[in-house]
Design goal:
- The chain is mainly α and 184 residues long.
- It is elongated.
- The C terminus is likely disordered.
């Protein structure tokens, strides 16, 4: 550890010790206890990563960081609620509608479930979130060309899954591995 690293650590520890009660109170006034503790932890993690800025900015910088962190949590929560509501609405519609459209939706949902998480994610980002391939590349932290190839492969696998619906009598798409007992 260099002298600069040691000085940086001491400056952060002092900032943490002096400001923790204020940041914790700030978070608790704005969020339930479990979320407040997450906000505090993430605020100080950000402060550690950007130690020079945090030490120079002091308490106001930490308040701003806590505010942004809390806003991110709230946006995530709202987004998850919207997705859950869409899934519920789709499921209710499929269950309440006795037409061929309900059967098609059911086949589509089943086919999507048979994809792996990455394939499902890219399809949902493009078709549900209406993101462009370029935006998907940013979300997935890859090049646009890579995202385009992944999207093409996911579409192909979905098409294949739709053309070959699961047979309830057939073995599952993801077989489990069984181990035989070894006598001791």
């Amino acid at each position: 550890m260099t002298a600069d690293d040691d000085e940086r650590r001491r400056a952060f520890e002092t900032l943490y010790r002096v400001t923790l009660p204020s940041i914790r109170s700030y978070a608790r006034r704005r969020a339930p206890d479990d979320l407040a503790e997450d906000v505090v932890a993430q605020t100080y993690l950000t402060a550690w990563r950007r130690c020079d800025e945090a030490v120079a900015g002091g308490l106001p910088w930490l308040y701003r960081t806590a505010r942004f962190t809390l806003a991110n949590h709230q946006r995530t929560e709202r987004r998850q609620l919207r997705v859950a509501q869409r899934v519920t609405d789709t499921t209710e519609l499929a269950e309440s509608d006795g037409t061929a459209a309900a059967d098609e939706r059911s086949l589509m949902l089943d086919a999507i479930q048979r994809l792996n998480d990455d394939e499902r994610e890219i399809l949902l980002l493009v078709y549900w979130e209406h993101l462009s391939v370029k935006a998907v590349a940013v979300v997935l932290d890859c090049r646009p060309g890579t995202a385009a190839v992944r999207l093409h492969r996911a579409r192909r696998k979905l098409r294949d899954a739709l053309s070959d619906p699961p047979d309830p009598q057939r073995s599952p798409a993801h077989p489990t591995t069984h181990t035989s007992e070894v006598p001791s």
